[in-house]
C-alpha cells in the first residue's frame, strides 16, 4: 500500500491518509481481513506524527472501514460489501449534485437537466 502525502493540499494529512486507504479498500486493492501497517510504522514511512496516523485510523474505524484488535493491529473490516456500495452511491450522488449545480449556474432548467441526464443514460 502506497500513500502519498501532499504538503500543497488543503486537506489535513490525516484526511489524506484516510481518503487513500478508503480508496484502496473501495477499489479492492486492500482485501477484507488484510492487515494495515501499524500506526508507528505508517507514521515512520510517511514521516508524520504517530498522532496523525492514529487519527486517520480512528476515523476509518468509526466509519466501519477497518477494525482494530488490541495487541494485533488494524485490519480491513469484514462485510464491507454494503458499506462499499453506500460509499460509491454517495460518490455518484456528489458527482450528480456538482453537475446539477453547474447546470443551474449557467441557467439550465430542471427539464433541460433531466433531458441531459436521460441522453447520457442512453
Automatic annotation (TrEMBL):
Q: What organism is listed for this UniProt entry?
A: Collinsella ihumii
User: What PROSITE patterns does the annotation carry?
Assistant: HTH_GNTR
The residue ranges crossing the membrane are: none
User: What GO annotations for molecular function exist for this entry?
Assistant: DNA binding; DNA-binding transcription factor activity
Where the record annotates domain HTH gntR-type, the positions are 11-79
InterPro entries referenced in this protein's UniProt entry, alphabetically: Tscrpt_reg_HTH_GntR, WH-like_DNA-bd_sf, WH_DNA-bd_sf
Please give the CDD domains that the UniProt record associates with this protein.
Answer: WHTH_GntR (cd07377)
* Protein name according to UniProt: GntR family transcriptional regulator
Can you tell which superkingdom this protein's organism belongs to? Bacteria
Which SUPFAM superfamilies does the record cross-reference, listed alphabetically? Winged helix' DNA-binding domain
Coiled-coil zones = none
Q: Which UniProt keywords apply?
A: DNA-binding, Transcription, Transcription regulation
Amino acid at each position: 500500500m502506497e500513500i502519498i502525502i501532499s504538503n500543497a493540499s488543503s486537506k489535513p494529512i490525516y484526511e489524506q491518509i484516510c481518503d487513500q486507504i478508503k480508496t484502496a479498500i473501495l477499489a479492492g486493492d486492500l482485501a477484507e481481513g488484510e492487515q494495515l501497517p501499524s500506526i508507528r510504522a505508517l507514521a515512520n514511512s510517511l514521516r508524520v506524527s504517530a498522532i496523525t496516523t492514529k487519527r486517520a485510523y480512528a476515523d476509518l474505524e468509526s466509519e466501519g472501514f477497518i477494525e482494530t484488535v488490541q495487541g494485533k493491529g488494524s485490519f480491513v473490516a469484514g462485510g464491507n460489501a454494503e458499506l462499499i456500495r453506500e460509499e460509491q452511491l454517495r460518490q455518484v450522488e456528489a458527482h450528480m449534485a456538482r453537475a446539477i449545480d453547474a447546470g443551474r449556474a449557467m441557467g439550465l432548467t430542471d427539464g433541460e437537466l433531466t433531458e441531459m441526464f436521460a441522453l447520457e443514460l442512453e
